[in-house]
């Protein structure tokens, strides 16, 4: 291939990357608070020229990534993104990989356990294990939990890019209880503490009289994309017990990560995770 041909190919590649970056900028403008936006609002948020924004929005609408709200000149995220997101979850096979550990965690602690992934704005519950009067019951459903005031949300957010953290803060930090962190700087400080200790706490921040502890779950590339938690009444889960459960919760989170193909980049520290599904700890009598 000639030098000129190579140069042209590089230019085309760079142009494609720039176009994809613009598309991502547009999609990232939407949030739960700003679910519907006009092209003018999208242009203002992205800094893209209005003509470019209109062209890209129309293209995204044509392929289903955006949907137009009737005849109004506002747009929202399209169902195609939901379908693609579901494919990601299915391909990860979270059901078979995570369920045994969520069930194990529930049986050991006697409290509810949750497995959640980030849906672009909130944490979506994809697995829930509870103890009922009739025995151990699995309830699988899609719910949503705020990122900034739940243990699963903070366990996820602590290992994300500064850009995503800033976006979550900019989208507002709703106050759920008197204990909710609603200040951006305070949340960033809390996330730093979570990274240092390896787990997140929710001490009545999302719901009064409910305490939770969560730990991050990693994909094969090491990226934190989900979290697992234990939650229950504050009187049954005081801070001292939560801290006592921290090692177990991180253990289960790391086992799920190992099942998903994650390989720790550093030698395992004393007491860290080296087991797989076949090496689960014995259940209490």
Q: What's this entry about, in short?
A:
Helices cover 45% and strands 19% of the residues. The protein has 285 residues and is of the alpha+beta class.
The 3D shape can be described as globular
Number of strands: 9
If you average the pLDDT, what whole number results? 81
CATH superfamily of the largest domain: GAF domain
Query: What is the overall number of helices?
Result: 9
Helix content range of the residues, please?
40-55%
Low-confidence segments: 133-142, 266-285
Q: Fill in the CATH topology of the largest domain.
A: Beta-Lactamase
One letter per element, helices H and strands E, the order comes to HHHEEHHEEEEHHHEEEH
Characterize the largest beta sheet: strand count, sense, and whether it forms a barrel. Answer: 7 strands, antiparallel
CATH class of the largest domain: Alpha Beta
- Tell me the radius of gyration: 22 Å
Written overview of the protein:
- This protein has 9 helices and 9 strands.
- By secondary structure, the protein is an alpha+beta fold.
- It has 2 domains: 3-77, Arc Repressor Mutant, subunit A, CATH 1.10.10; 91-279, GAF domain (Beta-Lactamase).
- The strands form 2 sheets. Strands 3, 4, 5, 6, 7, 8 and 9 form a 7-stranded antiparallel sheet that branches.
- α2 crosses α3 (50-62).
- The longest helix is centred in the first third of the chain and has 25 residues, at 3-27.
- The model is unreliable at 133-142 and 266-285 (pLDDT under 50).
